[in-house]
From TrEMBL:
This is SAWADEE domain. Transmembrane segments: none annotated. One of its GO terms (molecular function) is chromatin binding. Residues 33-174 form the SAWADEE domain. It comes from the Eukaryota. Coiled coil: none annotated.
Length: 206
């Protein structure tokens, strides 16, 4: 998902800033796994991210943002298993920008991740559910591409408009990924976090 560069405010404080000495991470094949999105605890919005595992910690880099915005999570920093579960639920496969021709498959009940109206010009993505679609006949642009002008009424499940309904256009909407395999780096980090929490010895040999 294309997240706006405007959206991440510089006042954000990460749990810990990791700077320098980046581990090279070449052995892991990225190609087989869907891109990740992560719901930042800073603003509870969804961002496309890359993850790396560094010394029993997970580093999250936000696509399109400089490293100052990276978030760093040590595996031994969780107080209980609920916190680990809550962290796990912050990850999922990346949502994708809805295309005009995908309009017919969006209807009442479709779960989406979308940008909400903002007076500050920030573009942030939150989860919503489609309540109704006010369909209009699709036009064609000069190049003959189908253009959706329909109004999508969204009921927000998160973000500043939580529990409210607003109107969105196709360009505001990303469709949720059907993929639900979890990225192996996140999986092994969560495993490690649970092992540390329960005080079991680490057998990984690294
Ligand atoms: Zn449409």
């Amino acid at each position: 998902m294309q997240k706006s560069l405007l959206s991440y405010q510089s006042g954000a404080t990460s749990p810990m800033i990791f700077s320098g000495e980046f581990a090279d991470d070449v052995e892991w094949c990225e190609g087989n796994w869907p891109e990740l999105e992560f719901r930042s605890p800073e603003d509870e919005a969804w961002y496309a991210v890359e993850v790396s595992d560094i010394c029993d910690a997970l580093m999250i880099s936000f696509n399109g943002f400089s490293y100052e915005h990276d978030e760093f999570y040590p595996a031994d920093d969780f107080k209980n298993s609920d916190e680990i579960l809550e962290f796990e639920e912050r990850f999922r496969a990346c949502s994708e920008q809805m295309q005009d021709v995908e309009c017919p498959k969006v209807h009442e009940g479709t779960k989406v991740c979308a940008t909400c109206p903002s007076v500050t010009g920030e573009v942030k993505f939150y989860d919503a559910i489609v309540v109704t679609v006010e369909r209009m006949k699709h036009e064609r642009d000069e190049e003959g591409n189908e253009v959706c002008g329909c109004d999508f009424k969204l009921f927000w499940k998160q973000g500043p408009y939580i529990n409210q309904v607003t109107t969105a256009k196709v360009g505001d909407i990303c469709l949720r990924a059907e993929e639900n395999r979890m990225n192996p780096k996140v999986v092994s980090f969560l495993k490690e976090a649970r092992r540390k929490l329960h005080g079991e010895p680490c057998n990984q040999g690294n």
